[in-house]
């Protein structure tokens, strides 16, 4: 399977590298076709395709040269067959020249569109860096790594969120997934992140932090109109890793259960009681429950959003991170997350359909 995937990647890379030769191949192929067929059979289609291909693949200069080459080749073949002064020949040459001129216009339009897209990418990346923190690589005895991959790669940001900070109560982490996409999702991420950063420093328990997140999201939802007013919510896991001891505490609000990796074994930290996502407390009468999970030295905690465990291959099979990680050891959290991203992209063939956030915390021995 991996060998086949590697071969497909190599073939795609070769095709992309040589695709830039297409305008030249079209001109040469058109000239040979035109020269070796009857005078009334024309290679006009090749001559018009060459500058349009250059417009899509190459620079302005190359597009202009392709247009000139197309016109020159057509003129040379028309002269060879004595058709340059014929009305049909002149009509053919006019068509080739017109398409060549249009190719230059198309090339400029694509250039300016790419500039706008690149500007949007830079803005989206700046927003992401402002909202989602650049986490330190370590906090005390804990090593931390994070990865984020948006489903819409050009946007570079979506509705997943993550955070980790050292507090008087221990290292506290949050990984969540906002329902929806676009600016509304980004705004909800901003609200949740701001509340978590403040509450993590002030509140003595995870339940208290959850309550503050709940109130903030309800207030935010109350300001909205339309479907998002009643349907907006955030799934999330809050984790507290005390400075001392071999355990961690967590509160899970409708989110995929974290995984604890230790000595080649993978344990799913399932909540003792299921709970609704954040923002839906009004639909539940239950109280948040804090679960305690063993977290000895050498163990790694993996928090992730459903972009990982709901990633599908062409057959519709979900990616199973627990199965893929069992029996394996990693040098650290960065190696773990790099491996996960490589494998989930291989599993889906690069067709990521949902945002993906990964946060790994390793307790050194």
What features would you describe in this structure?
The protein is of the alpha+beta class. Helices cover 49% and strands 18% of the residues. The protein is built from eleven helices and eleven strands. It has helices at 2-18, 22-35, 44-57, 60-80, 87-131, 182-202, 206-222, 227-231, 306-309, 321-325, 333-348, and strands at residues 138-139, 142-149, 160-167, 170-178, 234-241, 247-253, 259-262, 265-268, 291-294, 300-304, 356-363. The strands form two sheets. The protein has a six-stranded antiparallel beta sheet. A five-stranded antiparallel beta sheet has the order 3-4-5-6-9, with helices on one face. A hairpin with a 2-residue loop joins strand 7 and strand 8. Helix 2 (22-35) packs parallel to helix 4 (60-80). The model is unreliable at 1-6 (pLDDT under 50).
């Amino acid at each position: 399977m991996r060998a086949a995937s590697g071969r497909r990647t190599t073939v795609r890379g070769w095709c992309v590298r040589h695709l830039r030769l297409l305008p030249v191949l079209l001109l040469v192929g058109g000239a040979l076709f035109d020269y070796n067929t009857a005078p009334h059979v024309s290679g006009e289609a090749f001559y018009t395709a060459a500058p349009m291909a250059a417009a899509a693949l190459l620079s302005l200069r190359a597009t202009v040269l392709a247009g000139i080459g197309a016109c020159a080749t057509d003129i040379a073949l028309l002269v060879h067959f004595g058709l340059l002064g014929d009305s049909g020949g002149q009509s053919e040459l006019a068509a080739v020249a017109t398409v060549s001129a249009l190719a230059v216009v198309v090339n400029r339009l694509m250039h300016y569109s790419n500039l706008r897209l690149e500007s949007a990418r830079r803005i989206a990346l700046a927003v992401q860096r402002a909202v989602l923190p650049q986490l330190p690589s370590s906090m005390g005895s804990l090593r931390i790594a994070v990865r984020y991959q948006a489903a819409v790669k050009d946007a570079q940001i979506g509705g997943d969120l993550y955070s980790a900070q050292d507090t008087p109560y221990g290292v506290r982490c949050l990984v969540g997934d906002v329902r929806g996409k676009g600016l509304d999702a980004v705004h909800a991420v901003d609200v949740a992140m701001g509340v978590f950063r403040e509450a993590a420093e002030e509140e003595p328990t995870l339940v208290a932090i959850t309550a503050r997140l709940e109130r903030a999201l309800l207030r935010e939802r109350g300001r909205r109109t339309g479907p998002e007013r009643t349907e907006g919510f955030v799934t999330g896991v809050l984790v507290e890793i005390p400075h001392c001891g071999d355990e961690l505490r967590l509160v899970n609000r409708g989110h995929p259960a974290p995984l604890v990796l230790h000595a080649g074994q993978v344990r799913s930290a399932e909540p003792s009681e299921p709970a609704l996502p954040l923002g839906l407390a009004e639909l539940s009468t239950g109280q948040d429950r804090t679960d305690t999970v063993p977290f000895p030295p050498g163990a790694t905690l993996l928090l992730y959003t459903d972009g990982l465990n709901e990633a599908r291959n062409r057959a519709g099979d979900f990616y199973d991170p627990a199965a893929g990680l069992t029996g394996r050891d990693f040098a650290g959290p960065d190696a773990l997350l790099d491996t996960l991203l490589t494998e989930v992209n291989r599993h889906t063939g690069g067709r990521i359909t949902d945002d993906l956030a990964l946060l790994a915390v390793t307790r050194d021995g």
